[in-house]
Amino acid sequence: MILGTTQPELLAHMPRVAVLDEGRLVAEGTLAEMRQTPEMRALLGA
Question: In degrees rounded to 5, what are phi and psi of residue 17?
């Protein structure tokens, strides 16, 4: 199943997340792992 969101608060409820750019997989993993990536930090505004 693929679930997309533009609402960062919903990410906390997802066991694994993926970052896509124009349909291309940029990164994937647990939310804790993704918080370490520049793409996810930008998405979360961190």
Answer: -130, 160
- Single pTM value for the model: 0.47
Helices assigned H by DSSP within 1-46: 8-11, 31-34, 38-44
CA 12 – CA 23 distance, rounded (Å)? 22
What does the pLDDT profile of the chain (46 residues) look like in tens digits?
455 666 767 767 777 877 778 888 877 888 788 778 787 777 766 5
Q: How far apart are the first and last CA of the chain?
A: 27
